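Bit of a strange request maybe. I'm writing a small parser for structure token strings and I need a real example to test against, not something I typed by hand. Could someone generate the tokens for this chain?
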Amino acid sequence: WAHLRHRLVSKWGHCAMSHLPDDGAFEEEEQEPTSVLDTILKRNDRLGKTSHLIGRICVIGSIVASDPRKVVEWHTSTVKNVRTDESDDGSRLTGLLLMYPGYFFHVLEGGLKSLTAFVKEYVKMDEAAVVANELKVLATTDDIPTRAFPEWRPSNVQQHSKPVSADAVTVPGAQQVSEAYIGVLNIGRSLQTVKKSERDGLLSDLRTRHTDLLPTQETINTLALNEDAPTVAEWVDIFCQPMSLQLDREVVWPLETELVY
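Reply from user aminoacidic:
Good idea to test on real output. This should exercise your parser:
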């Protein structure tokens, strides 16, 4: 994760700014360590983008509660409480919570601050291990052009499987994540095409109406065991916590010879 943090800051972060003052002496201006999230928002301001950045995140978790309805209740309450400004559409959370036997698969979209606040609540859930645990972030995007979901809704998928042929080829983990993620996004887009009064019927019968888009139980079981995906705590550490950037040249001796043009 240290390597990933370095790559993220190399892309988005700001190093200490060096400049020559009026007297010609060289000075270096130190900056406080910042998070990737803060850096993205500041960069957005500098570019004159006044609209709120909308992001999207995909999380999978193992259900611990004996009654799966507690998982839905926790998400419903958190979606409502995380939104701090009712007049700000960017803080509105939309998405789809899919409930499977033993696991949940959640795609959530909204303002970056709202998303990070929600994931921090996930960290608390994971640590408590009363409702669910072993939460992992499968995918995240910090600037999406449009929302895929008209609102936030849960759906009880129950058991969903497909026949597997004998000559089936093993699909790489990254491809499985991509296919499951895109499939759920397309389900969200289909919800936008129906009346609000008809969405309950569609969500209660996803296995029939969207059998090809809906991730199977086997896929969910595999994704939940994906060791390459960061935990929610690791994601918060990468994306939200202050970090200090140390360049390779600062720890290498002797110093590199400067190029003379």
